[in-house]
Design a protein that fits this description.
alpha+beta; 207 residues
């Protein structure tokens, strides 16, 4: 009996060590040569992505209305993400996230929740967020970096994410129709909405 217990205890310890070594992120503070390069690539990718997305949505809003911009939102994200992958690397990942999501696919996973927790604690404690959070992920023999930047509510965002009284009327109808369980309204100008995550393979950084 003791032998079996000892065996299972040893297996449990090995499993936990393996899990922490290969699955959990390392919260990096420039502790290896790839960190600064990952930050550089992450910042550049966020800048390109957000610039293209804001420009595309602004054009649609002006020409076709807020509701149509909302309808095309996911398609524009996919289109811009593909263009960045084609320009940079096919393993680059881009995701917009918030615990108060409109679409369940934008809900954060465990690692993303940890990053959001860092942003949220700083936001509540200091009134400002760190400019970014970076994680090192080791999984299935590969190393990836996750670069996160906080996203704040702007005047454009309020048209689809503001108080129920301030929402664009047509957009409000579409939200109710397409997202009956929506949890992404009620924000005010300057609120922390969520964050953008850029996933960068170490093989791309090392090129």
């Amino acid at each position: 009996m003791f032998g079996k217990c000892k065996f299972f205890c040893i297996c449990f310890v090995i499993f936990n060590l393996a899990f922490h070594c290969f699955c959990l992120p390392a919260w990096s503070q420039n502790d290896n040569k790839f960190d600064s390069k990952a930050v550089e690539i992450g910042k550049k990718t966020v800048r390109i992505f957000m610039s293209r997305l804001v420009s595309a949505l602004d054009t649609i809003m002006k020409n076709q209305g807020v509701a149509e911009a909302l309808a095309q939102y996911e398609d524009k994200i996919a289109e811009i993400t593909k263009s960045i992958k084609d320009e940079m690397n096919q393993e680059i990942g881009i995701k917009l996230l918030s615990p108060r999501y409109r679409d369940v696919k934008n809900s954060p996973d465990y690692y993303e929740e940890q990053a959001y927790k860092d942003f949220l604690e700083a936001w509540h404690g200091k009134g400002r967020c760190p400019p970014y959070v970076i994680q090192e992920i080791r999984r299935d023999g590969k190393v990836f970096y996750r670069y996160y930047e906080p996203l704040f509510i702007t005047n454009m965002c309020l048209k689809c994410h503001g108080s129920l009284e301030s929402l664009d009327l047509e957009a409000a109808k579409r939200i109710k129709q397409d997202h009956p369980n929506d949890n992404a309204v009620g924000y005010r100008l300057g609120d922390l909405r969520g964050f953008i995550r850029i996933t960068i393979p170490q093989t791309y950084i090392a090129q």
